Amino acid sequence: MGKAENGGGREGRGGRQSASTFPNRSIPLYYQLENILRSKIEGGEVLPNHKLPTEQELSREYKISRATVRQALAALVSEGLLYRKQGKGTFVTEKAAQTKSVKLTGFTEDLFTEGVKAEVRVIEMRAVPAPERVAGVLRIPTGEEITRFKRLRSVDGAPFSYVINYVVPEIGQKINEKDLQHHTMLHLLEEKLGIPLGTIRHFVESMKADVEVASLLAISVFEPVLYMETAVYSAEGRAVEAVDTYFRSDRYRYTVELIRSQQLRKDRGKRTR
Amino acid sequence: MGKAENGGGREGRGGRQSASTFPNRSIPLYYQLENILRSKIEGGEVLPNHKLPTEQELSREYKISRATVRQALAALVSEGLLYRKQGKGTFVTEKAAQTKSVKLTGFTEDLFTEGVKAEVRVIEMRAVPAPERVAGVLRIPTGEEITRFKRLRSVDGAPFSYVINYVVPEIGQKINEKDLQHHTMLHLLEEKLGIPLGTIRHFVESMKADVEVASLLAISVFEPVLYMETAVYSAEGRAVEAVDTYFRSDRYRYTVELIRSQQLRKDRGKRTR
DNA sequence: TAGTGGTCTAGACCACAAT
DNA sequence: TTGTGGTCTAGACCACTAT
C-alpha cells in the first residue's frame, strides 16, 4: 500500500510474497485500505454522496488486487459508510459524516459507558441461587448457585443506572471489586477472561421503579424507569452472562442503529426499485 | 452446485462459463451454497458445535472455488450461525438452532408486526407543520409542511401501540388509508415507493403516558409506556421518515439482537484469547 | 508435519448504466 | 460501446492448531 495518505506507510509491499517488507507486518492489506478509506470519509476528505475511485483505480493506486479492494469496500458498506450501485460506482453515505464520533464499532460497549467518567459503586458481590429467568438464560437449573454483582453507576454525581450481573461461579471467582469498579462486564469477559463474545440480546421495557430501584436511583417509587434484560453469548454460542439493568428515564435512552446488512439478497426476483 | 440435498438442483453448472446450464440461472453460487448450509443448520441437520466440512471439502463437493465457498461462509458467520477457528475449522453456533424461527433477516420488520393479525385503526392523515425534533431528523426547516399519520395497533382486541409517522409530502401523497391499514411504513417505503432503505436508528425510553396516549392505549395517565423515536434513512443515506411510537409496557418489549460483525478486527495486537 | 482457516493475486465473464 | 460493480476461478503463501 504505497500512497501518501497512508501516513508513514511507505512501501509496505515489495515484490511478491504476501506479507510486506516493512512496518505493517501482518496487518492485512484489505484492512489497511479499509482504515485509510474510513478515515478519509470520517475526516470529511470524501464528502457524502461523492463517488469513490473505482475498484480498478483503487487497485492500481494501492497496488493491491481488485479482490482485496472489494473486501475492504464490502466491510465499509456493511458498516454503513458506503453504498454501491452496479454500473455506476461506489458512493459515500450521507449519514457517514455525522456518525464518525459515535461509530459503534460493531458492539455495545458504548452503551455501557466504558471509559466515560462514571463513578461506580459496587453494592454487592455474592453467591445466590439463580432466579428462574437467569437460570433460563444461562441454561442451568433454577436455584443453582450463581454469582451476582450489583453496581450503581453515577455520572456527574447523580445516579444513572443500577446494574445486576449474573455469571456462573467459575467466572465470578475471577472477578474482583476493582475490576467491577473500572470496567464493564463485557470488557472483563473479553479482555480479562479471554472469552470471545458473540451475540448479545437485549430486551428493553418500561416499568415502574420499586422501592429498591427507586432509592438507589434517587427517584420516587412508581416513577418510570427503563429496564433492560441482557443475555450475552460467547462466539461459540454458550450463554455466559445475564444482566438486569435499570436506567433513570430522565438520564438515559437506549439507542440502536440498525444497519442494513450487506446487499438485499432477497430480491433475486428483480423488482423495480 | 451438484449434490443431492440441493433439492432439485441437478447440475447447475457444467463446463466453464460462469452462469449455469440449468434452472438456477443468475442465482449466485455463493448465495446458493449459503442457503443450502443455512437450511441444514436451521433444520438441525448439522448440530450446534459440530464442525462443518472444510473449505476445501465444500469446494470439491459443490464444485465451486474456495473463494466462493468463503463468501458463503462469511455471510453465515456475520449472521451468527457459524463461527470459525483458524487452524481448527468452521462450527455451528449453539444459538443457531434456536433462532431459526425468529431470524430477523437483517431488518426490523419483525418489530413492527408486519403480518401479525393486528388490527390497525387509522386515526389521522394530514399535513401539519413539522415539529422541531422531526424537522431535525428529516433535515428540513422547522414548521415546514409535512405529512403526519396516526395509527393505533391492537392485538387480540386490546391496544398495543400508538404510532405517529412523519414523512415529506411527496411521499405522504402516495400513501392512502388502505395502505396504512395493511402495511408498515417500512414496507410501504420499500415495496410501494421503491425506496431502498439503509440505516434505521431507534431511541428507546421510558415515560409516563400523557392524556392522549393513555386514552388511546386504554391505560391510566402516568402509567409507564415505552416510547420510541425512529429515524429511517434510505440506502443513500437520505432521511425519509421519522416516527414516534408509544407501546403499552405490559404488552411489548423491545428486543435487539446484536450479532458480532464479522471477525474481531481490532485485536491485531494479538492477545491470548 | 499436516490440516485448516486467513490473506492475496491475476484474470475472466456477466449485468447494469450511461453515452 | 464503454465503464462500473457482481460473480467466479485457480492457485499461492501465511498463521494457527494439533499430532
How would the blueprint of this fold be written?
Two copies of one chain form a homodimer.
Chain A lengths: L28 H14 L12 H8 L3 H13 L3 E4 L3 E4 L1 H6 L18 E12 L2 H7 L6 E11 L2 E10 L1 H4 L4 H6 L2 H8 L4 E12 L2 H7 L6 E11 L4 E10 L5 E5 L15
Chain A binds a DNA duplex (19 and 19 nucleotides) through helix 3.
How would you portray this structure in words?
The structure is a homodimer of 273-residue chains. Chain A is α+β, with helices and mostly antiparallel strands and 273 residues long. Chain A folds into two domains: 94 residues, Orthogonal Bundle (Arc Repressor Mutant, subunit A), CATH 1.10.10; 140 residues, 3-Layer(aba) Sandwich (Chorismate lyase). Chain A is 27% helix and 29% strand. Chain A has nine helices and nine strands. In chain A, strands 3-4-5-8-7-6 form a six-stranded antiparallel sheet. A two-stranded antiparallel ribbon of chain A has the order 1-2. In chain A, strand 1 and strand 2 form a beta hairpin. In chain A, helix 1 crosses helix 3. Chain A is elongated, with a radius of gyration of 23 Å. The two termini of chain A are 37 Å apart. The relative contact order of chain A is 0.10. The N terminus and C terminus of chain A are likely disordered. At the A-B interface, helix 3, helix 4, strand 6, strand 7 and strand 9 of A face helix 3, helix 4, strand 6, strand 7 and strand 9 of B. Strand 6 of chain A pairs antiparallel with strand 9 of chain B, so a sheet runs across the interface. Chain A binds a DNA duplex (19 and 19 nucleotides) through helix 3.
